[in-house]
Design brief:
alpha+beta; disordered N terminus
Length: 142
């Protein structure tokens, strides 16, 4: 009578946070998305790519900010022009000031640019320290 002994099959390292730790680089940059005081979202990118991602988000936010400012200037000009055309200088000035105030308040909104909270951190350490929600392997920067 022979005994058959089954050796345990090697198991893959457990996934942490739904991220396969076998496919991560040695070091990563950790980015925090979200407004201060709100529940942040943490993402990982390959080491030294965090600055590129933040730069791309900053450029995109600046484009949106300029576009909103341009629209605000055009609307303020139209309001002032219509008020002047109708002969209501006080209404024109008040409308212009309201539109400028709204445009100024719009600039205070958070712009959604992430912050690098961990630079060249070991991947396992990042997964243990932060609540990582995802890993972006190939960073596409325009």
């Amino acid at each position: 009578m022979s005994k058959t002994v089954l050796s345990p099959t090697p198991t893959k390292e457990p996934e942490m946070g739904g991220i396969d730790t076998d496919e991560l680089p040695t070091t990563v940059d950790v980015l925090r998305y979200g407004e201060p005081g709100a529940d942040p979202t943490y993402m990982m990118v390959p080491g030294d790519d965090g600055t590129k991602v933040v730069g791309a988000h900053s450029r995109e936010a600046m484009r949106h900010r300029r576009r909103r400012l341009g629209v605000g200037i055009v609307v303020a000009g139209v309001v002032a022009g219509v008020g002047y055309y109708l002969g209501e200088l006080l209404v024109s000035a008040l409308g212009f000031l309201v539109v400028v105030a709204v445009a100024g308040y719009e600039r205070l909104r958070p712009d959604g640019v992430p912050e690098v909270v961990g630079r060249n951190v070991h991947a396992e350490e990042a997964l243990e320290t932060y609540e990582i929600e995802g890993y972006v392997d190939e960073v596409f920067v325009m």
